Predict the structure.
Amino acid sequence: MSGFFPPALAKGLVDASYLLTAFLFIMGLKRMSSPVTAKSGVIWAGWGMLVATLVTFIDPQITANYILIVTAIFAGGVLAWWTGKRVAMTDMPQMIALYNGMGGGAAAAIAAVELLSGQAHSRAAVSLAVVGAIIGTVSFSGSMIAFGKLQGLIKRSFRFRGQQFLNALLLAVVVAMGVVIVLTALGMIAPQASAATVIAIFFGLALVLGVTMTLPIGGADMPVVISLYNALTGLAVGFEGFVLQNAAMIIAGTVVGSAGTLLTQLMAKAMNRSLGNVLFSNFGEAAQAGGAVTGAMKPIEAADVGVMMAFAQKVIVVPGYGMAVAQAQHKVWELCQLLIERGVTVKFAIHPVAGRMPGHMNVLLAEAGVPYDLISDLDEINAEFETADVALIIGANDVVNPVARTDKSSPIYGMPILNADKAKNVIVIKRGQGTGFSGIENALFFLDQTRMLYGDGQKAASELIQAVKAVG
Amino acid sequence: MIDGIIALYIFMLAAFTGYEVIARVPVILHTPLMSGSNFVHGIVLVGAMVALGSAETTTGRIVGFIGVVLAAGNAVGGYVVTERMLEMFRASGGKKK
């Protein structure tokens, strides 16, 4: 296809289109950061991607393998389209991890092709190719592990003594091999083995590093890790952009690298965890250190809860990931609509990390049709719990645990929580008596005004609907 | 064309841009925005196309092919899930600030 245009003209067209793409990407991200314009934002960015992809076919650097390129785009695109359309909203976080990992893998593949080609590169280009290769590969295998964990394919966290030392050692070896590859490519040291072998081992070890880095991290921290890998992939793409002298990749990759880093920090802050903590500490193991909670959980029947809510002035619903897993959000909204018809004030209180990621619960409630003006975040709603007759906790646990305010020895001490314990009555819908994601006993469940409604979220919500209807 | 100090300038300005663009994003958009930025780095597709299109060895073609498949998956998948998430924000009349 490059034959259709004189190379100089083709090059100019490509450069101009990439400029347009960079503009569309930045405007798209800007629009995505406000709820009103968010939808149009992704469409702007989508046009940018389409323009860049089409125009790249006339890039004079591409001289062969057109059929392979089209086949590959078709294969990857159709597969991703199919999975992306089918995935349930609750499984979004791991899909993002999966697609992100693919991007990291692609950046690593570019680096591999460039390094294997052995063409003369500048010092900076070879160095950046190697750095991008490490970051991209780690992001690839790390994201796949994150996907496996959230999807439930990998059930437990693998931790052992000296694990961090081993990871550090592995990183050192990978970096050292990277340096050898750079020096060999620049002709500064004589090749010790065949270049392809060294490069293959280098990528293999980087893959292992991504796996061993991610395996010990607990499921609760995964969103932060996915966000971090998202930023890293952006960075890798930016670096490979320098290698290929591709302005669109440099700009888009770097923008995502910095935006992703900021997002990662915001998420870690919302979860009251520092990034270092997430990556290098053993969350969940220390949970037993938290003080024992005394008292007993007091069960209640759905009929009694129905009466209580039907005659309440104000009900605050605190949904958690458990509600989403049970697919109970539609039933819960149906229940709330009944209450609203009776003149009860109903509000939803969303903790920043409700669901699996900040904002995830808002997406799930939006899917069920809950209007925005009923949904409040932590700062808006916390003062209102004191005036609420009923706080209905569905599938939430750690985010309403009052020990975060009181118990200094608890791993979640200091985390901002929803003050559901201030409500006059607290109803907790829960499958059983177990602890939450973090494995910490919840003091809220043992309070005098708390009653437990045991059962599957969706079934319990259906029973409550019947109970409220029965009140008449 | 893009070398040395110019490259550093682009890098610096793009980094500031990324930071500023999302600096004031509300929490409710964190997940869609992470997904959106995930889509944007799908631009790696054009690089993978160039890498495959200029590959001359069999190994190069295989690795390049894998790269393009992965990159296309990143771009298309990232777009589909972001669009689906944001679609729901619009459907419920999303006017909340």
Remarks:
- Residues 91-97 of chain B have pLDDT under 50 and may be disordered.
- Chain B touches chain A through 88 residues (CB under 8 Å).
- Chain B has four helices and no strands.
- Residues 8 and 14 of chain B are 10 Å apart (CA to CA).
